[in-house]
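Name: Outer membrane protein beta-barrel domain-containing protein
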Amino acid sequence: MCRKIISLISLSLLLCTAVYSQGKMELLPKKGNFTVALVLGDNDVTDIDPAVLPNYSVYDNFSNYYVSRLGADDNFSVKQPASITNMAGVSLNYFLSDKISLNLFGSYGYKSTPGEEAYSGVSPMSDSKGNVIEGSEIPAIQGSPETTNHKLYLSAGADYHFKFDQDVKALRNTDFYLGGRFNFMYERLEKNQISWLKDDKGDYSVNSEGGGVATAEAIGFGGALVGGVDYYFTQSLFIGLEVNVFNFMYQHTEIVKMPGVQGADQKTTFMNAMSYPRLKIGFKIF
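Structure predicted for Outer membrane protein beta-barrel domain-containing protein:
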């Protein structure tokens, strides 16, 4: 993936060399222009650990469950450094004036894993002396849950673009900006256990009653101050770098491990600075 990105950037540089050589051509966007950019990196989004929901492995007439408890720390926010090999989303900018633009950014993810049925086995046989015959058993196979995961991230805001003397060669066609964002994130994880093994006095049988869908849902709101720079190689092509100067998020997560029971919830507030650098490869549409 990284090689593909490097190749794309190199090809873009080669294609725009002829236009760039024209010197003082005005390339920066102006009032009424619209840009779109592919954003590479990571966002400060939810990341629910599937282990917080149970696989309904039930035995002894539903008296015990193998479950994962809700942790006391923040299990639901990505804290890993950004990577340019990850597609974070798509960014849109509309310029109300030469210095003010409106920004809309978004990404959506969906993941689905089909469930697998449980299978009962055969207990090991014994010989005439009561000794277990090795290899005579057929092990039971535990079922796995059907899981689905939806993840949405949206941000909206405005940017102020700093204009410099275009006669300064080092700053020509370079767009520096500072902006504010309102961020919204949502994630929903579902587990639906198809069947599982039930312990019946030392032996296992397949059971598929009383499972249902377990859910984990996270909703977050916040704001960010972002800073960035875009460099225009042509009137249509630019490459940029953006970073969260300061970021604040409030998040509420609720987990319902069994249908019809009260959920366990958790509230998280987190802040970070100079975080989540993102690479942009963009185009000025009009």
